[in-house]
Specification:
By secondary structure, this protein is mainly alpha-helical. The protein has one domain. The chain contains eight helices and no strands. It is globular and about 35 Å long.
Length: 156
């Protein structure tokens, strides 16, 4: 990889070590209450469960990675409210995004990167009953994730 701040890693290692451990931590966090405005913004049913996992995934990133706690003024401006988070999530590619894909907001957020987040979303969707699984639920995961990234005053 040629971009600064990116390193090449083996997918199997990412899935086994990083994604697996974050997914376990997210599962442990799922019963925790979210701020009332966030709870109110989440969709009902499977989409809401997946969005909740996205929220908790971001909180887990912030707990684990110093880089994930860094502020990005442009990103915070982009996430100026629930509607903005929803619009950006709706653009996220359903397939594993590449770092240069301008639609992939998951690469814009400081932290482990869009590939890790893609696999976390897939894992969250895979935990649903088979009849409720759908690739488009990835965007609900990203919506919850972005709500966790937004400045608190923007999600009211």
């Amino acid at each position: 990889m040629e971009e600064p701040g990116l390193i090449s890693v083996r997918t199997e290692v990412v899935l086994d070590v990083l994604v697996g451990s974050i997914a376990q931590a997210v599962a442990a966090r799922m019963p925790e209450p979210l701020p009332p405005p966030v709870e109110a913004a989440l969709p009902a049913g499977p989409a809401g469960r997946v969005a909740r996992a996205g929220w908790h995934a971001r909180r887990e990133e912030e707990a684990r990675f110093e880089r994930a706690r860094e502020k990005d003024v442009l990103l915070e401006a982009m996430l100026g409210g629930i509607a903005a988070c929803s619009a950006l999530a709706a653009r996220e590619p359903l397939e594993r995004p590449q770092p240069e894909d301008r639609r992939a907001i998951t690469w814009r957020v400081p932290g482990p990167g869009g590939h890790v987040r893609h696999y976390l979303a897939e894992r969250a969707i895979g935990e649903l009953p088979v009849s409720e699984r759908a690739p488009a639920l990835k965007r609900d995961w990203v919506f919850g994730f972005l709500l966790a990234c937004a400045p608190p005053e923007a999600v009211r």
